[in-house]
Amino acid sequence: MAEPSPFLVIVDPQVIFAADGSDWQSPFWADAEPNILRLADAFGERVVVTRWLPTANRSTSWGDYFEAWPFADVPADDPLYDLLPGFEDLSPHPTVDEPTFGKWHQQLRDIVGDATEVVVAGVSTDCCVISTVLPAADAGARITVVADACAASTAENGAAAMHVMGLYPPQVQITSTATVLASRATTT
Questions:
Q1: 144 by DSSP, 3-state: which?
Q2: pLDDT above 60 (res 63)
Q3: 11: CB partners within 8 A, 6+ apart
Q4: Disulfide engineering: 175 pairs with which of 88, 131, 152, 179, CB 3.0-4.6 Å?
Q5: Treating both helix axes as pointing N-terminal to C-terminal, what angle do 130-138 and 155-165 enclose, rounded to 10 degrees?
Q6: Which CATH code of 3.40.50.850, 1.10.3290.10, 3.90.220.20, 3.40.50.300 fits the domain covering 7-187?
Q7: Is the dihedral of CA 67, 84, 25, 33 positive or negative?
């Protein structure tokens, strides 16, 4: 029996992480975005998009977090949390909305399966991407992180996150958009 085709998980392509003037704007989003869109085109219906939403319980450490980042302490339906133009209709699956950095929870696992192959791209490499990748690998998924389709908060933080994720082979592999696209071209 043939292995199912991998899913592409696009982590948090939201206004808050890309908009000019946002305190959380990744300076690398403009470089990552075209690679993410190329990957999405190649994965077709096997694309899942996630969003981080500020719905966590404020009586926990999330309350401290929002005190540190008051600009982000707005309702979940605020335009800051919207998907960026071009990302709203990339997936036939519902958007996976989570109030946590990591997205490897039941909603995402229900779509991609628990022990499957997942290709990951998105923002921020050093927060939501790494927080999704490591629990997914720990749960038994085979993860490929597309380095040039991820956007970090800083070059140093992005390099550190890639280094940490790279410490988990064979569960986690780090690669490039060109390599993933070439692989897909030979298997489809």
A1: strand
A2: yes
A3: 50, 103, 120, 121, 122, 123, 128, 129, 132
A4: 179
A5: 0
A6: 3.40.50.850
A7: positive
